[in-house]
Amino acid sequence: MPTLSLHQLRTRHVGPIDLDIAAGECVCIRGASGSGKSLLLRAIADLDSHAGAAVLDGRACASMPGPAWRRQVALVMAEGQWWADSVGEHFPGGCTPASLDRLGLPADALGWQVARCSTGERQRLALLRTLMQQPAVLLLDEPTGNLDEDSTARVESLLGDYRREHAAALLWVSHDPRQAARVAQRRFMLEDGRLVEEGEEEDGGESTSVSRARCPDAGDAAW
Amino acid sequence: MVIELSVLDLTLAALLILALAGVSLRLGLGIGQRLVVSAARTTIQLLLIGLVLKLLFDNAHFLWVAAMAAVMITAAGREVMARQKRRFVGWWGFGLGTLSMFVSSFTVSVLALLVVISNTPWYAPQYAIPLLGMVLGNTMNGIALGLDRLTHEASARRAVLEARLALGQDWDETIADTRREAIRVGMIPIINAMAAAGIVSLPGMMTGQILAGTPPVEAVKYQILVMFLIAGGTGFGTVVAVSLGARRLFDERQRLRLDRLRTSAD
User: Which of A49, A71, A83 shows the shortest C-beta gap to B164?
Assistant: First the structure.
């Protein structure tokens, strides 16, 4: 069972962080802009140099090559990046039509040109690209940041199923406290470089919290 | 055979530079001062090298030739570094280009002197120094262009490179496109020069030999040899420099390390 453990992890102004995420668990992190949420995820994925240790199932990050670690502990960045012209070239192992369908994408989406995809389509495709590699841990940086409510619900549902079926550990960065309440078993705030666990009672304000304005996924219809 | 040039002849030609500087001043191009300084540098540097070569030809000792070659390659290494907008920090900034030129230009030139020209002694400075100079000058251009493209692309496409790393690709796969493009950029000028030689441009070395009275076909044969040597030196030098540079952009954990580059003030 994949369990991700962080011991005294430090990177720039973030840390030291101690955190265990069990197999099949989702932990949500919120925090102000610039609090270092993305930096923390980058350090866990070993894209930035860091102090302390990250351990997956007893195997330390430092004990395996960087790419091997990143295939297991996969970071999905807030801004998906594309280097080839067509979507399909970014899916070396292909993509199951069922997964595409679950995110509201047609089966021929792999034949699309990246330049013609909307922001929302790209974000969902970037998530699928990583899921197809079946990582044990998913580090998700605002995975629904550019999505409308329908697509957000689809992504949350797909990630929930992935977590249960693969007993994957999820570390989910979100701005939205209601999304955190929906998807995560434990929730933290990143403040002054430290993780502060949020109690259940703090969600009492959920009904009054202001819903975050979302960018409508207008491109979907235009395509 | 050679018509000697007097100081007056050169002064007349220098009027061209002064006229151009005047135009620059008039149009506000802001390049007049650099033009004049560069022209002055050309005059002084070439006069000095003329004296040095005269000295060297009179004392054709291997050590003197080797010392001259060492000075040339060091200067070329500094020039490669100076032309980089983003250069590697520490010794890599100077060492990368210098090492690459050493492996390519030196090898190619020595090979040509030993096997093709086979003069006695093989290091005869009349052949060794101009040959090395031509190969080195062009290799320097190729390496400078290639490295500049590599570091520029890596900086501009940082997000893409890191996304590929995040997907578990290794450094080699991640940088492959950028590296290929940088090597191409470094090699294109010499490929174009070979394609245009004789039709669009008459290469300088051949022109010089013809001016000095060498039969055209003999001059052409030497020019072909030099072109091939330059292409070999530039091509292999660029491959080595860009490949080493691409590797240096990643550390032992295969992270992209753009902090190993420093943007020069210019």
Answer: A83
Please give the angle made by the CA atoms of A138, A143 and A149, to the nearest 5 degrees: 135
ipTM over 0.90 threshold:
no
Collect all residues of chain B within an 8 Å Cβ-Cβ radius of residue A68: 168
- Judge: domain A4-32+51-81+134-197, CATH 3.40.50.300: yes
Boundaries of every domain in chain A:
4-32+51-81+134-197
Chain B residues whose beta carbon lies within 8 Å of the beta carbon of residue A12: none
pLDDT tens digits, B185-224: 999 999 999 999 888 888 888 888 888 889 999 999 989 9
Contact B167 A47 (CB under 8 A): no
pLDDT per residue as tens digits for the range A133-161: 999 999 999 999 889 999 999 999 999 99
Question: Which residues contact residue B157 at a Cβ distance below 8 angstroms, ignoring those fewer than 6 apart?
Answer: A83, B178
Distance CA B171, CA B165 (A): 7
Any CB–CB contact under 8 A between A75 and chain B?
A: yes
A136 has a chain B CB within 8 A of its CB: no
Query: What are the domain boundaries of chain B?
Result: 1-58, 62-263
| Phi and psi, residue A48, nearest 5° | -120, 150
